[in-house]
Amino acid sequence: MRRRSMLLACASVTAGLLLGPVPTASAATTAPELVVAGGYGELSSGLLSVTARSDSAVTGITAHLYASDSSEEVATVSDFRLGSGSDTDGRWVTTAPLRLAELDTYRVVVDLTDADGDTSTTQSATGFEYWRTAELLDFEVTPEHPDHSHQQVSVSGRYTISDPRTGLTTPPATDSAVQIVTSNWGDPVSARTDTDGRFALSYTHTYDGAGIVSPQLELPGPSSQQGATAYVSPVRSTTRVLLDTDELSTVEGEPVTVSGRAEVMGEDDWEPLAGATVRALWDSDSGAAAVRPVTDAEGRFSGELLMPRSGTVQVKVLGGTYLDVSGEEPLRVSVARTTSIGSFTVTAGTNSRLTAQGRLYTGESTPSDADNKVRIQYSADGATGWTTVTTVVPGFGDPEEGSLFQGTFTAPAGQGHYRAYFAGSADWQTAYSEPVFVQLP
User: Fold this and answer.
1) Where does residue 92 rank: exposed (0-12), middle (13-18), buried (19+ CB within 10 A)?
2) Domain total for the chain?
3) Which of the two residues, 9 and 396, has the higher pLDDT score?
4) SS3 of 3, please?
5) Could you tell me the CATH number of the domain that includes residue 257?
6) Are 221 and 251 in the same domain?
7) Domain assignment present for 21
8) Percent of the chain having pLDDT more than 90?
9) For residue 222, what are the domain limits?
10) Cα 200 to Cα 188: distance, rounded to the nearest angstrom
11) Neighbouring residues of 437: CB distance < 8 A, sequence distance ≥ 6
């Protein structure tokens, strides 16, 4: 038994030497995979990169470039170096910038070969952006906090252009347009470059709030540029209003003139405030009225305000981009309402006694007790020398019918003229009736 085993073993070895190595099952292989191809670094660098992976080392890379609007191949590139990652999963970059004739976003088709001999040909999902790059240098915006005395904002900077076709960095063409978005609403403002690529302009910040300032160079053809912004935030100054008077009077239907001077706090003291809006407002349960005059170069303002009733007007400087709202200054306005006396009669009785009556019209309201009095007056000639013979208090009547008043008194003479007189007040106009001639029997 032992000898038989040894013989079988020797036979096996002899068979192996005669037949050669026993073949094994071959492992499955995978073609290298293109992840993406495109630019490397700045778009103006001219460097092309290829990112790929494979199950064995990537040994060959060839990129074919086609214009975006053509199927004609414009360049073939095979000179790549490993820039990052590994030879099985990495990013390869051309060893030298490409010098192509035209700026474009080129289609890229990449041939890949790995150490197993597997190959693939794939068009990249993204293109090779072969563009110029504009760089903004020395960008400055001053002041970043404009105020009432310094509303002009200066913007300046300098552009350079890097071109992948030449590998040179130069200023843009003289008189190139720079569009500048300012903090104000509306279209951008335009500046022009000089021979060194510099530009500068000033604008008045008028926007009521903060905002950005950002320039952009206009470049023909494919190009890119990094944006730059500055934040401009205006500062508001303290204001005040000085009235010419704190009390005015008028009659119903006639306006009063609200006037005075507006001032702004300067660097050291109060200064005239020109071009500001001043608001004079009366507001009550019975109505409202307002006027908004604008100050002149000396800070003076004047406006007519029509009020139907007496009241207190609040006057203040309205706020704006550079102005705080001022404190309110009160202005007392007395409006004497229209009054009239009608239906006035005087009748004679016995013993030289006369009875006068009529109606006092004061509109929709009744005067206070101190003002609600009608005087009956006498004049011998009906023109001069009027004297009060009695005073009566009107009742409370319908506004449309008037308040009835009546009084009995002894006639001062056998004949003469009589009238009714309402003295009025700051809130009520004076009123007279038509004179009535009376002769005692």
Assistant:
1) buried
2) 4
3) 396
4) helix
5) 2.60.40.10
6) no
7) no
8) 84
9) 132-232
10) 14
11) 382, 415, 416, 417
Tokens of 197: 């690529």
Identify the pLDDT of residue 53. 97
Which residue, 341, 302, 368, 308, is CA-closest to 430? 341
Instruction: Note the pLDDT of residue 134.
Output: 96
Q: Is 304 helix (H, G, I), strand (E, B) or coil?
A: strand
Decide if pLDDT at 409 tops 80: yes
Q: Hey, what are 335's tokens? A: 């409006």
Looking at the fold, whether 253 and 328 belong to one and the same domain comes out as: yes
* Tokens 């409370």, located at residue: 396
Over its C-alpha atoms, the chain yields an Rg (Å, rounded) of 50
User: 13 with 6: CB under 8 angstroms?
Assistant: no
Within a domain: 28: no
Q: How far apart are the C-alpha atoms of 134 and 160, rounded to whole Å?
A: 6
Tell me which residue has tokens 């004049």.
Answer: 379
Residues 110 and 162 in one domain: no
Residue 201, number of CB atoms within 10 A of its CB: 16
Question: In this structure, are 51 and 126 located in the same domain?
Answer: yes
Q: Which of 66-75, 181-190, 320-329 has the lowest mean pLDDT?
A: 181-190
Cα 407 to Cα 114: distance, rounded to the nearest angstrom: 127
CATH number at residue 381: 2.60.40.2060
